[in-house]
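sanity check this chain:
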Amino acid sequence: MSYVQAQTCDRTVREIADRIFESHRITRADQQVFMASLLSKSSLTLEEQNLINHVFEELKRGVLRVVD
């Protein structure tokens, strides 16, 4: 199991997105988890896909700040 898969198992997409929206910050690790999740769309629900897309939209708009 890869590092990204292990992180995804530990925390759900919903939990990660909730933390991101609450803090207005996203880590590089969060971005990696979301990108890997999107690339394996078959394992995501429509709600999870929408959450991830919303995070990336907010990131593009400058609402979220990337932190390491």
